[in-house]
């Protein structure tokens, strides 16, 4: 992470209104006074810190280009069954969140945080000092979500009280939505089987890095993201899933919970059926990877043509060259460039100017 950025971690505790806590991270500079508040949501199997290389690259682009785009602060939010939140919710996740974890749960966590319905603890544990909640009512938000996180950002708009008025726009990277008739076809249908059988124990973080770096799926990742995955996505053994293994490290987001997230039957469909409605309520930017690995090219075209009614329904639409579904992991710079383009589009259409 850039040495010029200040960061702080918090636990968001919405109990008793919602049973699952979340972990969030704030980034800012002392010189930032006003501007946009960026809110990042990650994909399945990843974590809030995976966005840090993209954030670094975005700020670098903004500094180089020096447009009339100002940032107030940046937030990245863990899904309740991912990252440090997965550890805090470990016992609760075994009751009612297996074998399926619905993406709306992530949307609900995001919504409760933005509406301050709960309390904020400093640090990454439930023993942290209680601090004042952050009030976003006067902020101009831009949501940025990848895959499951893209869908969860939209689903979060449906909870009351509404947060829709807070968002200037939402930027979706490889949103995991499609016609329900195509879900049973292709790579997407195989995701649960793949996560069920994946390796999830290593002797150490160092060994995990070496093993993953040599694997086809991970060797294409930006090395910054892979190191973040190893440093922030693993935890020491033993755990509830592995009580008898005393040495080594395993995934914070367990295989069971990653698989449970892939099994959500509603997230894909809800947004596909309602995508045009969401796009009429708030400016939405959509960017797919130019490599059609997890989601077929025909599926992407169908979403734009039939779910949305054409690209004219969007604030902007395009492809991230040389990247596939894991674009934030594979090409943080490419994703950052598209986020920057989206912010410029918003500025030109006065979406941002009218709210700043």
Automatic annotation (TrEMBL):
<feature type="domain" description="AB hydrolase-1">
    <location>
        <begin position="38"/>
        <end position="337"/>
    </location>
</feature>
<dbReference type="InterPro" id="IPR029058">
    <property type="entry name" value="AB_hydrolase_fold"/>
</dbReference>
<dbReference type="GO" id="GO:0016787">
    <property type="term" value="F:hydrolase activity"/>
</dbReference>
<dbReference type="Pfam" id="PF12697">
    <property type="entry name" value="Abhydrolase_6"/>
</dbReference>
<protein>
    <submittedName>
        <fullName>Alpha/beta hydrolase fold-1</fullName>
    </submittedName>
</protein>
<dbReference type="InterPro" id="IPR000073">
    <property type="entry name" value="AB_hydrolase_1"/>
</dbReference>
<keyword id="KW-0378">Hydrolase</keyword>
